[in-house]
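re: ur msg from earlier - yeah i can do the beta-D-glucopyranose complex, just paste it... oh wait u already did. ok heres what im feeding in:
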Amino acid sequence: MQVFGVDVGGSGVKGAPVDLESGALAAKRLRIPTPQPSAPYAVTSAIAEIVRSHGWSGPVGVTIPGVVRAGVVETAANIDDGWIGVDAAAMLSDRLEMPVTVLNDADAAGLAEARYGAAAGVGGVVILLTFGTGIGSAYLHDGRLIPNTELGHLIFNGQKAERYAAGRLVKRGELEIDWWATRVDGLLAYIEELFWPDLFVFGGGISKRFETYSHHFTTRARIVPAVLRNQAGIVGAAFAASMRSDT
Ligand code: BGC
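and the outut:
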């Protein structure tokens, strides 16, 4: 079975049909730069273009970098404020004339890693963190997602964790990678004190270089890099859409 997945990020909107047996993309991924400002109407048009250019008709899953409850976007730290309060699931289903499921981007990545990737078959508590523009989190227990944990918004060392230790600080040259990894280790220790996970999955663009800085990590729990990399959002969105009872 295939379902279409779309990942809405700060810099790009990416989508492809996903083969749900294997978790692999069933066709080439299409990417459109995220419209600026990233207001709902413009982003919706980009999503529609990606879905249509694949000639897709059927269920679609979409990620948003904010809290999403029952299809409604509740926060927008790294996307236009115009999304707050929008029933994105209803709006997109209307526009695409297809059933659309909407969920948080890190939650989608967590679902994808738990089903097909670094946390496949892992029981107990798994916390996936994505280090990019912000810090996203997914909390899973025995493979079941507890959505919208937003650990990037914890206050750590007097500021929001995602200001203190986001991957973008390295990308923009504001922080040398070893200093950044030391900061991340402090944050991981704090999260570990609160949640006692059995496994951390380390995601986001910077996870590609995991081996170059992972020696700084001192967590009790095992910590592994995400394996689905920049496809995790697309795959997790499609997987979430496939779990809906009415699709
Ligand atoms: C948002 C989260 C999102 C994360 C990564 C944070 O600023 O609040 O919802 O998962 O960025 O995009």
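cool cool. The chain has two domains: 2-107+231-246, 121-226. ping me if u need the other ligands too
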